[in-house]
Amino acid sequence: MEKAASLLSNPGKTVILAGRGTHGAREELITFAQKLKAPIVLTLPGKGAIPDDHPYCLGGLGLLGTKPAYYAMREAETLVMIGTSFPFIGFLPHHARTIHIDSNPAQIGKRTPVDVGLAGDALYTLQQLNKRLSERQEDEFLCRHQQEMKDWLAEMKAQGEEDRTPLRPQTVPVALQEVLADDAVLPCDV
């Protein structure tokens, strides 16, 4: 825990990759991101850990991900993987210092080398790390990627509102958002 806190105390471009294991740890995850001034990228099973429209969320990573998430990962100097064994290693930064938190020790370092592995529940582990971290002041990396995400969302919405044939994939969720309740859940298959 101390080694992870020490590594995270260094300034730099940090990205959090949140997986299924972060469900139930929303407040701790957001506090962690705020302290590090780090954007949160979601795995597909991690979707819903924080709201898609949260300012720290850059969306998903991978073939179904967003450009801002992809570019943030390319620049990351430190990667914190939480509750995930993300299988698409081509989307992970190759030269970043990596901390991996997982409740299953066998998953730690399974797909990518790690500098620090923490075997533990995401909620408890993030609580302990949050106690040990001071809030960073430098936020240029975070702010730049937040703006990229705003631009990306605006572009997706504009493409979804275009009246054209054939329809763009963005058209369906844009249209559904206008008629569904805010708490509607839409299952998808890929």
TrEMBL record:
Q: Which residues form the Thiamine pyrophosphate enzyme central domain?
A: 2-129
- What is the scientific name of the source organism? Kroppenstedtia guangzhouensis
| Protein name as it appears in the record | Thiamine pyrophosphate enzyme central domain-containing protein
InterPro entries, per this entry? Answer: DHS-like_NAD/FAD-binding_dom (IPR029035), POXB-like (IPR047211), Thiamin_PyroP_enz_cen_dom (IPR012000)
One Pfam entry name: TPP_enzyme_M
Per its UniProt entry, which superkingdom is the organism in? Bacteria
